[in-house]
């Protein structure tokens, strides 16, 4: 009885914080998503107009599609780069000191803020930016490349730059737990390097890959600032839809979009967790 | 099965940077025998095994198996298979797929490799666990699977790296019998690395005792134990006293020491009842420690306590002179 009570007491602070700052706001958003709005006011109500508009609008479908497209492309790129970096750190760097040192090097970009790292691409990629000038001086191109900045290319480049580390960390963590004698056992059984990678390392790294995937997918799908800056407001994703609605004080509509986005992300994660058990990693 | 294959080490040397791990050893393993590589940790026995397996590069010299120099071949091409100390079973594959792993790497189709794996599992009596995952097995069962996985490649030589060290004492003795039975049935050479002399004596037809990167002594298990050549071997194999006699070191088996009325005077320092024997630790006047294993019945006719003065005697013929 008393033990039970102490247990609850110990769990209480975190539970209260989650209740107050996670559960309550979500409930509030869900409630507001059913409210009504005019150009100049919002009023409590229980109507499905916001959702009806969302699912009926072609633009919204396109934006959701664009969001998925960003998430998919960024996922493929961060996974490829992240896996390679983690693999190098875990299996090619022999000494622990170097592993830690190189791992810290990976985190150096995180010493500055997200937005600064993003914006610093602008002078690099711009029409008269470093990239274009260099390419012209090398004679590779005659005209500055227009698609370098304010394009999907720039958006994806920034996403990959910002979020690859979220892929590296969990994959590296999982790889470090792989017993090296397993690799020797694979070699003893006649597996080539590639066969070992496919048959031993990748299956054993799956939980890490999945955790990294959850990070990257949720971050990319929930982002709005990167898309706005790097596309020069020419591309949209769901995050921008919400931010626009908020800018126009259309809170009920923004809330409805947020609820749909939240459900979409949860469904995506739910599907992924069907395939890989990450419990061992937590 | 066949009568086994010849395996020979020729001037085999391993250096890690400037550190010499294995110093130019030569040895011819008797085909189809159970050989135990024995020695304290850091003596080079594991490096030697790993060089035979191909998991460690050879600095100098060669490993010759069945007439071919295999020193620079990859592990799977040598005709050796290794059983790892931690078993190294693939945690994401079930028992059958673990055993069939090498066949899958060779591209053998599913039906054929599963049939072969089942055959191996039968050999180690693990058929009923074929669909389990390694984490669902006990240490002894994991070991059998590891054994089956190594044997599925039909190796000419099976290399075992301290295979019993992770098991509890009871299982260890059981697996010992099992290993010996398998080796007899398969007729291939087993090379078993261990630091336990009892394990080596129980299993090995041949013992190779290593120390400080070289082979200290090798030969039939009984010869090594009965006639240690050096002080190190005598002490490491246990059951021997090393004392100074006539200006040189001699080995004297502990069970050859008797308590009598005349002989070398000594003081009892410890008495340990061991069932069939009583182990008396004594100190001679020269300060040397001598262990006497006295049969229980003899001891209790006139029991001794620590501090008692005794006289130690033995048959002259049981003293065994050691190389200095």
From TrEMBL, chain A:
<keyword id="KW-0812">Transmembrane</keyword>
<keyword id="KW-1003">Cell membrane</keyword>
<feature type="transmembrane region" description="Helical">
    <location>
        <begin position="147"/>
        <end position="172"/>
    </location>
</feature>
<dbReference type="GO" id="GO:0055085">
    <property type="term" value="P:transmembrane transport"/>
</dbReference>
<keyword id="KW-1133">Transmembrane helix</keyword>
<feature type="domain" description="ABC transmembrane type-1">
    <location>
        <begin position="64"/>
        <end position="272"/>
    </location>
</feature>
<keyword id="KW-0472">Membrane</keyword>
<comment type="similarity">
    <text>Belongs to the binding-protein-dependent transport system permease family. CysTW subfamily.</text>
</comment>
<feature type="transmembrane region" description="Helical">
    <location>
        <begin position="251"/>
        <end position="276"/>
    </location>
</feature>
<feature type="transmembrane region" description="Helical">
    <location>
        <begin position="12"/>
        <end position="36"/>
    </location>
</feature>
<feature type="transmembrane region" description="Helical">
    <location>
        <begin position="96"/>
        <end position="112"/>
    </location>
</feature>
<protein>
    <submittedName>
        <fullName>ABC transporter permease</fullName>
    </submittedName>
</protein>
<keyword id="KW-0813">Transport</keyword>
<dbReference type="GO" id="GO:0005886">
    <property type="term" value="C:plasma membrane"/>
</dbReference>
<feature type="transmembrane region" description="Helical">
    <location>
        <begin position="72"/>
        <end position="90"/>
    </location>
</feature>
<dbReference type="InterPro" id="IPR035906">
    <property type="entry name" value="MetI-like_sf"/>
</dbReference>
<dbReference type="InterPro" id="IPR000515">
    <property type="entry name" value="MetI-like"/>
</dbReference>
UniProtKB/TrEMBL annotation, chain B:
<dbReference type="InterPro" id="IPR003439">
    <property type="entry name" value="ABC_transporter-like_ATP-bd"/>
</dbReference>
<keyword id="KW-0547">Nucleotide-binding</keyword>
<dbReference type="GO" id="GO:0015697">
    <property type="term" value="P:quaternary ammonium group transport"/>
</dbReference>
<feature type="domain" description="ABC transporter">
    <location>
        <begin position="7"/>
        <end position="237"/>
    </location>
</feature>
<dbReference type="Pfam" id="PF00005">
    <property type="entry name" value="ABC_tran"/>
</dbReference>
<dbReference type="GO" id="GO:0005524">
    <property type="term" value="F:ATP binding"/>
</dbReference>
<keyword id="KW-0067">ATP-binding</keyword>
<dbReference type="InterPro" id="IPR003593">
    <property type="entry name" value="AAA+_ATPase"/>
</dbReference>
<dbReference type="InterPro" id="IPR050093">
    <property type="entry name" value="ABC_SmlMolc_Importer"/>
</dbReference>
<dbReference type="GO" id="GO:0016887">
    <property type="term" value="F:ATP hydrolysis activity"/>
</dbReference>
<protein>
    <submittedName>
        <fullName>Fe3+/spermidine/putrescine ABC transporter ATP-binding protein</fullName>
    </submittedName>
</protein>
<dbReference type="InterPro" id="IPR017871">
    <property type="entry name" value="ABC_transporter-like_CS"/>
</dbReference>
<dbReference type="InterPro" id="IPR008995">
    <property type="entry name" value="Mo/tungstate-bd_C_term_dom"/>
</dbReference>
<dbReference type="InterPro" id="IPR027417">
    <property type="entry name" value="P-loop_NTPase"/>
</dbReference>
<dbReference type="InterPro" id="IPR013611">
    <property type="entry name" value="Transp-assoc_OB_typ2"/>
</dbReference>
<dbReference type="GO" id="GO:0043190">
    <property type="term" value="C:ATP-binding cassette (ABC) transporter complex"/>
</dbReference>
<dbReference type="GO" id="GO:0022857">
    <property type="term" value="F:transmembrane transporter activity"/>
</dbReference>
<keyword id="KW-0813">Transport</keyword>
<dbReference type="Pfam" id="PF08402">
    <property type="entry name" value="TOBE_2"/>
</dbReference>
